[in-house]
Design brief:
With about 100 residues, the protein is an alpha+beta fold. The protein has a five-stranded mixed β-sheet with strand order 3-2-1-4-5.
Length: about 100
């Protein structure tokens, strides 16, 4: 799957999972694919400034979105890097569950 398709599919999946309001700005950086911004308007492709940046490879990101990998476990095992406000990352995790 091309990087544009990866980002497009991830944006769709994130918007389906955003069941609660999210009042921060988070960025997902998917290795070799691009970046996604999540804010109060939902998810969209973009590389804007964010309160927190979460970085992972495609497989890790997909496993998290599909519910096969807990984000905290991914972080603890080194598969997910978090840079910035951890509180915002936790709020995002709650909004996506």
């Amino acid at each position: 799957m091309g990087s544009g398709k990866v980002i497009e599919a991830a944006v769709d999946a994130l918007n389906r999972k955003l069941t609660r309001g999210f009042d921060g700005v988070a960025k997902f950086k998917i290795a070799d694919a691009g970046a996604i911004i999540v804010d109060s308007s939902g998810a969209r492709a973009g590389d804007d400034e964010a309160d927190v940046t979460l970085t992972a490879d495609r497989n890790t990101f997909q496993d998290i979105l599909e519910g096969n990998l807990d984000p905290a476990s991914a972080f603890m095992s080194g598969r997910l890097a978090v840079d910035g406000n951890i509180g915002t990352a936790m709020k995002l995790g709650s909004a996506l569950s």
